[in-house]
Amino acid sequence: MPATRSRMPAAARPVVAAEPDAARRWGKLVVQALLKLAYPALILCAWRWDAPRVVGCMLFAILWLQRWAGGGTLAASLRRLTTIDWAVVGMLSCASAAIVVTDSELLLRLYPSLVNLGLLIAFGATLVRGPSMIEKFARLGNPDLPPGAVRHTRRVTQVWCAFFVLNGAFSAYTALYWSRASWSLYNGAIAYGLIGVLLVAEVIWRYLVVLPRAARSGAA
Questions:
Q1: 170 Cβ partners below 8 Å, 6+ apart?
Q2: Is 3 helix (H, G, I), strand (E, B) or coil?
Q3: Taking Cα atoms as reference points, which of 76, 94, 108 lies closest to residue 184?
Q4: Could you tell me the keywords of this UniProt record (predicted)?
Q5: Residue 4 in 3-state DSSP?
Q6: Nearest alpha-carbon partner for 187 in 202, 175, 200
Q7: Could you say which of 36, 53, 95, 182 is the most buried, measured as most Cβ atoms within 10 Å of its Cβ?
Q8: 190 — alpha (psi -120 to 50), left (phi > 0) or beta?
């Protein structure tokens, strides 16, 4: 007697197969988010520890884990780094290594200003080569950006560059003249609060004003 088989509907198979992939993607996103939060959390806690060398080791580890997490093998992650990425990562790696070697609190305090310098280099380079950094982010949600929105993203990238200049300069000032606790509070919390406000304000303005205006201009 022929054996009877229960066949799974074809439409159901991709859903079952996709579940592990979706879980892995979410897992990668969670790990990447935690690593992004690890840096300001470390700066916030650094003033409590009289151990710049230990914090320097942690900064070095966080820097490279951020580049590797969720990107497949380490070799594959390194191949994706551009020349600008290597320059920024190299600068911050040297800074964290110098903190480890010298155990210098001053070098540790100056590290956040170097992070701002690295971000300035990364954002500024996209203004030269294009597309701008904010355009890249905007196209993740809107692949077909109208010309008016593209011009907007370029201006916003310029605003971010100005922010990194001002924030980096003020961060250096806090490193030289503020107490440990005040330096830690600004560079580990207040600065990131300002980044969050600027980021949210730009996204809201883009979706409520820039994109509708560009759509009306295109329709006309």
A1: 186
A2: coil
A3: 108
A4: Membrane, Transmembrane, Transmembrane helix
A5: coil
A6: 175
A7: 95
A8: alpha
Other Cβ atoms less than 10 A from the Cβ of 43: the count is 25
- Euclidean distance between the first and final Cα of the chain, in Å? 72
Q: Give yes or no for a contact between 65 and 35, defined as CB atoms under 8 angstroms apart.
A: yes
pLDDT tens by residue, 65-112: 887 765 555 455 556 668 888 899 999 999 999 999 999 999 999 999
pTM: 0.82
Interacting residues of 18 by C-beta distance below 8 A, sequence separation 6+: none
The pLDDT tens digits for 139-179 are: 988 888 888 889 999 999 999 999 999 999 999 999 999 99
Which two three-digit tokens encode residue 84?
A: 């600008």
Let me know if 26 is exposed, middle or buried by CB neighbors in 10 A (0-12, 13-18, 19+): exposed
Question: What average pLDDT does the chain have?
Answer: 84
Under DSSP, the state recorded for 216 is: H
